[in-house]
Amino acid sequence: MRKLLTLLAATSLLVTGCAGAGSLGTGTSTLVIAIVANPQMKDAIALAPEFEKATGINLKFVSLPENQVRAKITASTATEGGEFDVVMISNYEAPQWAANGWLENLEPHMAATPGYDEGDFIPSIKQSLSYRNEMYAVPFYGESSFLAYRKDLFEKAGLTMPARPTWPQIADFAAKLDDKVHGVAGICLRGKPGWGESLAPFTTVANTFGAQWFDKDWNAKLTSPEFAEAAKFYVNLIREHGEVGASSAGFSECGTRYTQGQAAMWYDATVMAGTNEDPASSKIVGKSGYAPAPVVRTEASGWLYTWALGIPKVAKDKDAAWKFMAWMTDKAYVQKVGHTYGWNRVPPGVRQSTYAIPEYAEAAKAYAKPTLDGIAAANQQKTMANPVPYPGIQFVGIPEFQDLGTRVSQQLSAAIAGRESVEDALKQSQDYAQTVGDSYKAVQ
Amino acid sequence: MTTVAPRKRQYGKGSLTVATWVLAILFVFPLLWMILTAFKQEADAYTDPPKLLFSPTLHQIGNVLGGSFLPYLANSAFVTVLSTLLVLLLGVPAAYALSLAPVKGTSNALGFFLSTKMLPIVAAIIPLYVISQNTELLDTVWALVILYTSMNLPLAIWMMRSFFLEVPHEMIEAGRIDGANLPTLLRKIIMPVVAPGIAATALICVIFSWTEFFYAVNLTAARAGTVPVFLVGFITSEGLYWAQLSAAALLASLPVMIVGWIAQNHLVRGLSMGAVK
Amino acid sequence: MSTLSVSTPTSASQVKVAEKRGLSTAAKRRLPLLPALVFVIAVTQLPFLLTVFYSFQSWNLVRPGSRHFVGLDNYVDVFSDTTFLVALLNTVVLTVVCVFVALLLGLGLAILLDRKFFGRGVVRTLLITPFLILPAAGALLWKTTMFDPTYGLLHFVFGTDVDWLSEFPLAAVMAQVVWQWTPFMMLLILAGLQSQSKEVLEAANVDGAGRWRTFVSITLPHLSRFLQLATLLGAIYIVNSFDAIFLMTQGGPGTASTNLPYYIYQRAFEGFDVGQSSAMGVIVVILTMIVATFALRLMFRTFSVSGGIK
């Protein structure tokens, strides 16, 4: 026993030494970058040693799934914790955080970087990351939502996809293509809880059904007939012709199913196309067609989203942080990915110049135009039936939405899993939403 | 158990042994499967029916060790060892005071220590986050050292107290009559009796610190992550990753597994709090 | 330490009659207790007081300027939140079922191990290992290699495509927790079994008592304090279960497998509603205190037995 204690003491000395070197004294030239673990970001991490070699700046990535990394980034930024030098955020956070003074204004940095060409960014994406017309985050990739469908399966079933499909038409196709015997679902839709998961596609559906989260006086409208109709449509479509395990399927899970040939259609982010058409990850390369986001009562219904990089106000070495961000979002990076990993893996939807690259245009001919069209049409005027008091399409651009959206998405998931009726789910959601709405009414 | 034949019948004994073995192997099968999977190629990990025979590879283990795993391991080792030493440093005197030299309010103090164990850890996580941030302890190993010490201290005091109570009064009295002062008493009489108990307590602290998840996930980010945090990266289900996950899980658990195996008897002793000699 | 040695010569015979001594001696005797006491109070009690303070405020961490005093509003909201009640119920179910099942399995395995047989040491080593592996690792392994609807071992064994984690989420989480904690229970009970006096068992055998009789009338009463201890320690840790839910089901589908620690975590670190999550924390502590008052009594009984004889 005494030996055990001695051993313990001895290892402690040893370990103190190790940890001292490894974790306690981090040099100032190491940037800590919090990033979402999506495929395009993993490519960036894999290419990062080139940046380190060229600049002598060391990088340390904290790369986690969306829900986890968002929790960390938000907590750190809101409390000005300073754990991260570069954070990956979206057009949900960027304008709000900029208004709160939590983010570094990037205009001076961009101006001081010759050849960065911020005028090349797609205008709606650029606008969505700006506060008072100045950018506080630079986009890595941008997306709208659209519908991927298997041309071969449509042909076999004698179906044709209209140029501008409606949701009832899609539900009809899903019923006809649903092939339980061969394990092919009619459609894959997200059911995994999370405001950035199931609520993104669902809210676009709700919008085009004429529903809205709040009316312009901040009354919650989750039990309105339109909202209920949309929720029932979405839940029933998944339950009847959707994927197995839908209540825990998010973007990644649907991606795996669709690329493995287990779904005939998939309504999701436009970035999915890169993975669908990448021979390294997909069994159905070249078999997909891409249609605009289906509609009901509105002209368009796709969302607008971008993963972007920002610098927290409290970050220590902002110049080094900017150098890294500029490396990851400039034109040269697009070329590097295209030549190293193939043109389907280039981060899409951000730079207009990307779409002028002949190799990219060739590789992405099936989806480049639908992506750009989707992004161009993604604004509240085209995707919503009524005016709303908040920014955002597939999200409500207020700080409380992370919490509210997560809780409502849990209710939606429960309905998708058949544990709760849609009515009950909406009734509880309405309570949550009204509490939030009231806090804005009071302000007005 | 009632149907088991009397001891003397060899047949009954034999079949019971076989049954015990079968049950044990079934019970740990998920673990054995993890070890097998850790030596597979990813493609061999995703088969239906599952593959028992395959050509083993060190590829996954190498991948994990070659990646960012080692800093996490170093943090875990540092936090575990240091917090355990701190627990002993604070806990041994307290256990002594509560057993061999009890004063008024002993049971209150004991009750208080144990009651802190019942406080759900989640209840104070936000203040802890805010405090560690204001004291610049956020995302440092020190925050975890402090919290793990307080997490293990109550149980450790309880355990060690019961070991101190095992010291026979007669021996202490005899020592006093011989004129021994406290340090001598401690060294010559008390320590030999309680040392195994202290070792057992240390072992339990090591296990709980090494495996702790909640504080580690919420209070570390880039620098101070421990091995459980390393595993969080495997939450998503994109692509093929089971073999790599198994290798990581195996490596992350191995240190405590080995310590626990070697010190099995201490484990029993520590858990039963000295109720067994 | 040197201050302590002063007190020893004065003690005439009994160490336990300390109450009658002078105040200064008593103070000196308390001294070794102080550092631990101060440390535990500082690290566990002070943050909790802050939690209580926050619970009376409306405060969304990501909405600056939102912080203001709201009295008991948060508590009212929490009690009208059906999800909170679901989480509370799940916590109770998870704790009670897991402790009970792990205890039963542990008892069975301990009885099997409490005899000499070929390879006993190896079997014991095997059986304790689930307790030694990281719960995080265990949870992820169960989620993938066991419960996966296509490639998991359960799919292979039962031949069904059931998606365990979405159809039986709470049960799946409980299976993992039971697996993790059974060895702990087994070890404790085994210690109890092995501390039985062999003479008493022999005597019972000579008297012609059957094995069942012996088990019920001699072994079980002897085991009772070990079972109590196992229940108490198991409950303390299992009620705080977080890893398994965080890594296996994320509380879902919906809130089907959300327990209180996970729900509070979500409200705090995904929703950043400091006020409400603090109120939940306070409510949980109050509930725990009510339950623990009974548990603590049990603990004291257990220890006055085990500590008293020696």
UniProtKB/TrEMBL annotation, chain B:
Source organism phylogeny: Bacteria, Bacillati, Actinomycetota, Actinomycetes, Pseudonocardiales
Subcellular location: Cell membrane
Residue ranges constituting the ABC transmembrane type-1 domain according to the UniProt record: 73-263
Full protein name: Carbohydrate ABC transporter permease
Organism the protein comes from: Amycolatopsis melonis
Coiled coil: none
Membrane topology (UniProt): Multi-pass membrane protein
Annotated family: Belongs to the binding-protein-dependent transport system permease family.
Main location: membrane
Record keywords: Cell membrane, Membrane, Transmembrane, Transmembrane helix, Transport
Pfam families tied to this protein: BPD_transp_1
Entry-linked PANTHER family: ABC TRANSPORTER PERMEASE PROTEIN (PTHR32243:SF52), MALTOSE TRANSPORT SYSTEM PERMEASE-RELATED (PTHR32243)
Automatic annotation (TrEMBL), chain C:
Membrane topology of the entry: Multi-pass membrane protein
Residue span, ABC transmembrane type-1 domain: 88-295
Statement: the UniProt record of this protein carries the keyword Transmembrane: yes
Keywords: Cell membrane, Membrane, Transmembrane, Transmembrane helix, Transport
The keyword Iron is annotated on this UniProt entry: no
Alphabetized Pfam families for the sequence: BPD_transp_1
InterPro entries given in the database record: MetI-like, MetI-like_sf
Gene3D superfamilies: MetI-like
Subcellular locations according to the entry: Cell membrane
Similarity comment: family membership: Belongs to the binding-protein-dependent transport system permease family.
PANTHER family (UniProt xref): BLR7065 PROTEIN (PTHR43005), INTEGRAL MEMBRANE SUGAR TRANSPORT PROTEIN (PTHR43005:SF2)
Protein name listed in UniProt: Sugar ABC transporter permease
